[in-house]
Specification:
The protein is α+β, with helices and mostly antiparallel strands. It has one domain. The protein is built from 3 helices and 4 strands, in the order E-E-H-E-H-H-E. It has helices spanning about 35-40, 55-65, 70-80; strands at about 10-20, 25-30, 50-55, 85-100. A 4-stranded antiparallel beta sheet has the order 2-1-4-3. A hairpin with a 5-residue loop joins strand 1 (about 10-20) and strand 2 (about 25-30). Helix 2 (about 55-65) packs antiparallel against helix 3 (about 70-80). The longest helix has 11 residues, at about 70-80. It is elongated, with a radius of gyration of 18 Å. The model has no long low-confidence stretch (mean pLDDT about 85).
Length: about 100
């Protein structure tokens, strides 16, 4: 049995969003909720259950002009490669993350 010297940890759920290239089904990257919210706010969903978006080069340029996260724009631009357009799909994940619990440890 361990003494009371072990730090106490609490777990919080962190929401992340994985983004995939629909042409290859390869994962493009993992976005924070905040990063993904920018995409949701600036792209058109066909309906409430839509989990994919169409992106082209002018869209990426608009993201840059509108203050989009340069990391996200870079991920999308890299995935697009030589293409002029692409479709992406997204998947929301919950991840349990351990954080030091100041109240107990």
């Amino acid at each position: 049995m361990l003494c009371g010297t072990q730090p106490a940890f609490a777990y919080v759920l962190v929401m992340t969003v994985r983004v995939f290239d629909m042409a290859t089904d390869q994962q493009i990257g993992v976005l924070t909720d905040e990063q993904f919210q920018f995409l949701e706010d600036h792209l058109e969903a066909e309906d409430a259950d839509d989990d994919d978006y169409y992106i082209n080069r002018p869209t990426l340029e608009a993201f840059e002009e509108q203050g989009g996260d340069p990391v996200v724009v870079g991920l999308l631009r890299g995935a697009m490669g030589a293409r002029d357009e692409m479709d992406i799909r997204w998947q929301r994940d919950e991840i349990a993350e351990a954080v030091h619990d100041e109240a107990t440890g």
